[in-house]
Every structure is written in structure tokens, then in C-alpha cells.
Design goal:
Glycerol-3-phosphate (1)-acyltransferase, two-stranded antiparallel ribbon, seven-stranded mixed β-sheet, 7 helices, alpha/beta, globular
Amino acid sequence: MVLIGLWAGIVTLLVFFLSLLTWGHTWSAWLYARMLGGLGLPLLGVKIEVLGRENLPVEPSILLVNHQSNLDAYILSPVFPRGTVVIAKREMLKVPLFGLILLASRNIFVNREDAASGKKVIKDAIVAIQKDKNNIWIFPEGTRSHGKGLGEFKKGAFVMAIAAQAPIIPIVNQPMGHLIDTRQRKARGGKHYIRILPAIPTAGLKFRDADALTARVEALFHKEIQNFPE
């Protein structure tokens, strides 16, 4: 885990300077993810097997991913597509260097303490999808589960998808308790599965459908997680 931390520092420094040169483009976010996982996964002793890679987006989409820990940045790196922006907490901007990388690569920030921020995030997401032709990467639980199943899905991600009339692509991240002890910060290593499910269309849906859509997709995640090998 010490080596993982050192590698993250090196990647952050390198991509920070590159992001200054490519300010306003999503390329640096994609590079950051791929570099983290490129050496980070071997250091963790983790081998990723992606199921359903053919379901990665062919049009701008909402990518829904269950969030477990900070190590998701390594674990999920193989499925982070080009042309993708992340919905991130505004507090992330305070992280030295990393916050500027997020800002440079056009990610969208939400202030959970400001009710008006949610409306702005939806407007920004519509622009990112419909005008800029980017994907949106979002953790629908809104917080980390620390490898213990799923948290409750928030409705915001689904309201966003309906507002943009963009398909939802569920990306199910296997609970990582079998290979990483997140509390003691120890890596056991092993094989880890990520399953990408077929797109769920939202064309024609109205805001009144958001609750049903949220429940449907959350149930789908629960079902898929139960099907992973232990």
C-alpha cells in the first residue's frame, strides 16, 4: 500500500503538468485513470476481468458505478472510457494538484450543502452529453460502501439521465472484500470482476419516472452483485 501511495503521487505530478497543457480537454482524466491502474493493479496483485466490455458506450451515456473505496480509482481504471467527465464533490478541488487535474479535465462539481447546486449540475451534465458528446461517470450511492454491498441509490443520477435523455450503462464493481482489507489497508491480491451491463434507454421518460427507474437499476445492481463469485 505504501508503493501504491508513491505511485499515485508520481502519476498526480506527471498528469498535473500535462493537464495544464491540455486544459479544457477530458484527455488528462482518462490518462490519469489508465496510468494509476497500469502499475497500481500489479502492485496490488489484482487481476481485473471485465465482463460485457462490448456494452461500453457507443453514444454519450450516463455510466453508473457502485463506489467502494479510494482504491476504485485503480480497480475501475480499465473501464474508464475516453471522453468521460466525472460528477465529483466540490471538496475534491481542495486536494493539492489532483483538484486542478479534475478542474482542467472539465469534470462537474456538486456542492451537497447547496440545493441550487443540484440544478446546475444537471444543466452542466446536459451540456456535457448533448453538446460536448461526453459520457458522465457517476456513483449513484453518493458515498463509499467500503466493500460492504451497496448503499442506497440517490435519485439525482437518474433525474440527470432523464433530463439529458441519455442511456444509462450500469457498471457493477464486485465487492472487493475478497482482495483488499480497506480498514487495515492491506491488499491480499486476486482476481476481481467488473460487469458492464447493456444500456438502459431513457428516451421518452419523464421526471415522474425517476423513482421507478432508480428502484429498477438499484435492484439490478443487487442482483448482479449476488452473482459474482465469492
